[in-house]
TrEMBL record:
The lineage of its organism: unclassified sequences, metagenomes, ecological metagenomes. GO terms for cellular component: membrane. It is a multi-pass membrane protein. The keyword NAD does not apply. The chain crosses the membrane at residues 27-60, 72-92, 98-115. It comes from freshwater metagenome. The keyword Transmembrane applies. It is found in: Membrane. This is Unannotated protein.
Length: 122
């Protein structure tokens, strides 16, 4: 059953990443925490690692369609390396419950922004 849950989460995360450019963390982290009982920190670390192949393949496919701004991606990626270092230190210093609440707040903010944009474009 655990393997099936992991496969379904991977498929769902991949589909969302291909459709919207997001998905890994939104799907993987809750599944790993709630479904598999991992700690928030371990789930976030696993999600970061799992998204690498998705990002590589997704980028390769989008490059073929001319949809990738390589310069912007390089800048974002380079600066993100610094950000992830800061984030890891912060995640390791926060209590588990605080980290879970902050992740939940992030999901709510992303959902609210998505809903707002959807209504604005009508």
């Amino acid at each position: 059953m655990t393997e099936l849950l992991i496969v379904v989460a991977g498929l769902a995360g991949g589909v969302l990443a291909g459709l919207f450019g997001v998905g890994g963390g939104v799907i993987f982290v809750p599944v790993l925490v709630i479904g598999l009982g991992l700690t928030q920190v371990h789930a976030e670390a696993a999600s970061l690692l799992a998204i690498l192949p998705t990002a590589v393949i997704g980028t390769w496919r989008q490059l073929k369609f001319g949809n990738t701004d390589i310069r912007a991606a390089l800048v974002i990626g380079t600066v993100s390396i610094i950000g992830v270092q800061i984030g890891v230190v912060a995640a390791l210093s926060l209590p588990e419950t605080t980290l879970r609440r902050l992740f939940g707040l992030l999901l709510l903010l992303v959902a609210a922004q998505t809903i707002r944009r959807a209504h604005r474009t009508r």
